[in-house]
Amino acid sequence: MSTLQSHAPGTSHFTARGQLNGILFVALFAAAVTRLAALPAIAGLGISPLIVGIIAGAIYGNALKDGMPQSWAAGVNFSARKLLRIAVAFFGLRVSLQEIAQVGLAGITVSVLVVVSTLVIGTWAGMKLMKLDRDTALLTAAGSAICGAAAVLAFESTLQSKPHKSAMAVGSVVLFGTLSMFLYPLAMHAGWLHLDTLGAGLFFGGTIHEVAQVVGAASNVSPEATHIATIVKMTRVMLLVPVLLVVGFWVSRSRSANHASDGTPQAGKGKLAVPWFALGFLALVVVNSLHVLPDAATSTLNTLDTFALTMAMTALGMETRISQIRQAGPRALATGAILYAWLIGGGLAITLGVERLFS
């Protein structure tokens, strides 16, 4: 490093090359992670490459944190920030308005009620009961309420929070979402849950964390339940856009209020932090709904998008330090447990109420 820094005229060149090397390193790491996640033992558990990526990245970042050249850090940061925004936007190609219409008002109502209630309860429980900071509470709530790790990434970008806070939220998604994959089908087959096909689809899709986890759990019930559950889950994913806009407005107002109370200049007052990637997500939902792209192109873009999200999660893991997680880990996990209890009890009550209303 000292040799490179001594050549001032070429510093920007070496910096750019270091960033590119960092991005390539993350890409290679993510490729290995993707192969690892495809192993039957891992794929059979419904654990997506995104989850494997943040775990593997965190292990590398903590065990071998001195093994990567410092100049590559900019590339890792690019992957964990800018690349994830692009990837979240392209997540919109997985949703269509026609699919949402298939489950009708029942599916939309369950999705809205679950998302809003879980966000409110999670933020309140995290901040008031568990004494977490606002960002950690919101990230944990978002992962449980909307679409797991992808929602955590989107909120992390909007809130501009620290990587270790996102890692704690993803940890909650991994633990409780994986539990759901086994407990939900078991409860159905054991007769603890008395739900018909529509009810099972609404409940599974409305309350399980990750898309892959929803599919994994519902596939143990019936193909019809899996279809309904997947569409309901994607309806929750659609709610990412309006929720991010509301959160962006709230964060903007909070920052303005904080500036006013401590007497610092309010340069950002009145400005709404609109997450452009959320608008891109919505635009691509429309594109997917209009069938502008051939199916093969959409499938290829979705595969590339999954890889980009895996890169972002891997980079996020590399930037995470276990010592930072340890400080708030138990409280964040307790918040996730409270939300999980709500998703089961409250989510079931919402499902039964909505099904009765629209039957």
Automatic annotation (TrEMBL):
Pfam families: Cons_hypoth698 (PF03601). The keyword Lyase does not apply. InterPro entries: UPF0324_pro (IPR018383), UPF0324_YeiH-like (IPR004630). It is found in: Cell membrane. Keywords: Cell membrane, Membrane, Transmembrane, Transmembrane helix. It is a multi-pass membrane protein. GO terms for cellular component: plasma membrane. The chain crosses the membrane at residues 20-37, 42-60, 105-125, 137-155, 167-187, 228-251, 272-293, 332-354. It comes from the Bacteria. Belongs to the UPF0324 family. This is Membrane protein. It comes from Caballeronia grimmiae.
